[in-house]
# Entry
Amino acid sequence: MTRLVFAAALVLMSASAFAQTRGQAAAAGAAGVTARLQSQGYRDIHDLRRTPDGKWTGKAIRNGAPVTVTSDPAGTTIAR
# Structure
């Protein structure tokens, strides 16, 4: 019984560590995308979200106009 409880605790701790690592990776990815967009002349970048296909989409301002931006992993940015 003790081994079963120990094994269950290990599984739960591993799942928690994985979720934290994933969250940190997403935050680091969003920071990188924000920096890339800023270098391309966008400002007030917000609502960045990663799509299932690996692209990042969000809202920003460029040349005084609000735009929706999509940035792919290769660094290509599309504004509409």
